[in-house]
Write a structure and sequence with these properties.
The chain is an alpha/beta fold. The protein is built from 10 helices and 11 strands. Strands 1, 2, 5, 6, 7, 8, 9, 10 and 11 form a 9-stranded mixed β-sheet that branches. The two termini are 37 Å apart.
Length: 295
């Protein structure tokens, strides 16, 4: 007897779910996710941010959040300490997550900063603790981060995806009805080759692509204002046109975008009047327009 694909189930209390993805690491996807989420919050939306990169979580640092989330009663009563999540093994990240999801589970309460509710594996493990898990463990942990967190009341949940097209991407696209995906890339040909693969993956699983973001499009010298296209010129714009997608944002390379992320103060709140913050705010407005057009 053949088995079909998993049935997609909406996340309780969440209206729209957006995946921010890239084919290759190091292109600024997490920085884009953070600033997009905060910008959406500034537009009056109730926003959540899920760090789906279990092996390299960066949302805690970028959102200036630390500590373990509180556990609250879920619908249907509490679970006993042994079976409730996060389990002790998951918090220590030494063996594996609790692969059994209790029927009457308790929920984790997201940590909040800048008006955005956040959840990350980084809250559950030590700063230098590696997460060494196989595919099944990753899939179960992701399911718990999606289903056993109190995401209720959100207009938009932004999922910061890990690079590539592996277990995490497959699990999320098969289990959650995504409202759309945003593809982030630099203009460099090497990055674009993987960005196309990422875009094709979402298309293959019937997830609409809201648009692409060209990150690190050029560097403007702060002394002489000369612009240098370090990673090539307008490669993402050309790729988006080729694939029939729109550009949601064109973000120049600037030290302030990097430093504000490292210090846990996203540029849209730490430098709200800067040119870079305005780009992210325009990106948020374009994303909302895309969501409204699809509703």
């Amino acid at each position: 007897m053949s088995r079909g694909l998993p049935v997609k189930k909406p996340i309780a209390g969440v209206q729209d779910v957006i995946a921010v993805a890239s084919g290759k690491g190091g292109v600024g996807k997490s920085t884009t996710s953070v600033n997009l989420a905060v910008a959406l919050s500034l537009l009056g939306k109730k926003v959540g941010l899920l760090d789906a990169d279990l092996f390299g979580p960066s949302i805690p640092r970028m959102m200036n959040l630390k500590g373990e989330p509180d556990i609250v009663d879920g619908t249907g009563g509490g679970a006993d300490e042994q079976n409730s999540w996060p389990s002790r093994t998951m918090r220590n990240a030494k063996i594996s997550p609790d692969v059994g999801i209790p029927r009457a589970a308790k929920l984790l309460r997201p940590l909040t900063n800048y008006g955005v509710q956040c959840m990350s594996m980084g809250f559950l493990v030590g700063d230098n603790a590696p997460v060494v898990w196989r595919g099944l463990m990753v899939m179960k942990a992701l399911e718990q981060l999606l289903r056993q967190v109190d995401w209720s009341g959100l207009d938009i949940l932004v999922i910061d995806m890990p690079p590539g097209t592996g277990d995490t991407q497959l699990t999320i696209t098969q289990q959650v009805p995504l409202s759309g995906a945003i593809i982030v890339s630099t203009p460099q040909d090497v990055a674009l080759a993987d960005a196309r693969k990422g875009a094709n993956m979402f298309t293959k699983v019937d997830v609409p692509i809201l648009g692409m973001v060209q990150n690190m499009s050029f560097f403007c010298c702060p002394n002489c204002n000369h612009s240098t296209h370090i990673f090539g010129k307008d490669g993402v714009i050309a790729a988006a046109k080729e694939m029939g997608m729109s550009i949601l944002g064109d973000v120049p390379l600037h030290a302030d975008v990097c430093s504000t992320s490292d210090y846990g103060k996203p540029i849209v709140v730490s430098q709200p009047d800067s040119a870079h913050a305005k780009v992210y705010k325009q990106m948020a407005e374009a994303t909302l327009a895309k969501l409204q057009a699809r509703s």
